[in-house]
Structures are given as C-alpha cells and as structure tokens.
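Chain A, query sequence.
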Amino acid sequence: MKEFWDRVLQFCQETSQFVGDRLIVDAGKIQAEQKTDGSLVTKADKWSDKTIREAITKNFPDHGVLTEETTHIFPDQDWCWIVDPIDGTTNFTRGVPIWAISLGLLYKGIPVFGFVYLPYLKQAFHGFWYGDSGLTGYTGAYLNNQPIATTPDSPSKSHLFNLCARSTEILKHPFPCKIRMIGVASYNLLLVGAGAAIGGVEATPKIWDIAAVWAIVQAAGGTFVSLNSPSIFPLEVGKNYGSCSFPCLVVARPELVSQFRPLVESIAQKS
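Chain A, predicted structure.
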C-alpha cells in the first residue's frame, strides 16, 4: 500500500508545482466573474481545474473526480479526487499571496489523504487519515515533508482562532482568543493542524474546501466538527454537492469542542 501512497504523493507534488508556477504568473492580473452562488471564478480557475482533472485521468484512470468548476456529482467509484483548483480566488485576483491548490482523495466516500499547496508561500501540506476504511500505509500530517501537530495549549488571549468572512457575528460576544481572518478556507483550518492556531471556523464551505483538510487536520491530532449535521462523510453516490455548504469547527483537540462550539454554533443556523 505504501507504493500506492508514494505514487499519490508524488503526483500531488508534481501536479500542484506545475499548476502553481503557472498561476503565480497570472495572480493579480486576471479579472474575476461572479458565479450564481456569489463566489468568484477566473480563467485561471478554469485552466487549473482542467489541467488537474486531465492529470488525474491520465495517472489514475479508475478514479472518479469531483471539482469546483466542473462536475459536482459524487461518482460511483471507490476512489474519488475532490479538487479546488484555486482556494482563495478573491485573494488571487487582488494579488494577495495567500491562496491554495487543494486535492483530497476519498475512499468509499471518506477522505483518506489530503494535499494542499500554497504556491507563493512554498508550503505543501499533506496527511493520511484512514479511519475505519481498513487501508494501511503512512500515517501523520506534514508540512513540506516535516511532521506537524496541533498545539497542546489551553485557549488564551495570546492564542489565535481563525474566522471566515461569514462568521464575524461571533465577535458580538466576548471571545477567548485573538482573531485572524485568512481568506482561504483550507489554510484557515490547516493552521490549526500546524499548531499556529488553536481553532478555526468556516460558515459556508463547499465540499472542495474541506475534503483535503478533513484528512490532514485529523492526522495532525485535530478535531473536525460538523455544525449542522451529524457528519459530513461518507458522501452519497449520485448526489450533487454543488450547492451544499458544510459549516464546521476545527479545534486542536477533542476537549476544546465543548468550549468553542457554543460560541460558533450560530453561524450554522444562518448558512
């Protein structure tokens, strides 16, 4: 099984490097269009989406693919890639150097591997999280191939908690940590896995925002909580995930859920 994971990791590294190098050239220079859901899309998003889809089909012809810019229906295949070709399109179009390429690999509807690359920052996150899948191989979470883990600290005003743009109403009430807003859903939550933040919340992420992160954060020791349903995974074969949002909370360890969930649950009611 490790040979398979070696191939998967090498594929993600090489593909994201190739795509990222091209996207850096276009960052801050391409105008965006507004999609029906209010999010932004550029020619660069579409090129990245197409390039990654074609690379997956060539290297893993028996795997399914679900991406932000094309097909949103979860396929009837054991293995499926979920791709966000540019996570943080607003940052990308404005020349803010924080945006990411996200690839999650699911087995029977559940993420078991995640890879997220931030080209400008030269940061590549990956992680293996097998759960009850019966799969074996490598374990853990990594940043540039070095192990990462969540912080063991208790919350305080010297610790960071990440919000998204649609969760700022949380600040109407006292909050135990300093707040940061990254503008990139995957990086927002990955900083918890890396130990930089003690928690993070996303009010309206789509499945391509969180599929890779779900595996990486848990592999790093973090806890991923769905705020409006018992669970997000496994995904349902044949379901269209294009308009589905998944409000979620990520914290450094399980015992922090009871402290932070009451503070952020209101965002799920309005998503």
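The first helix runs from residue 2 to 26. The two ends are 39 Å apart (CA to CA).
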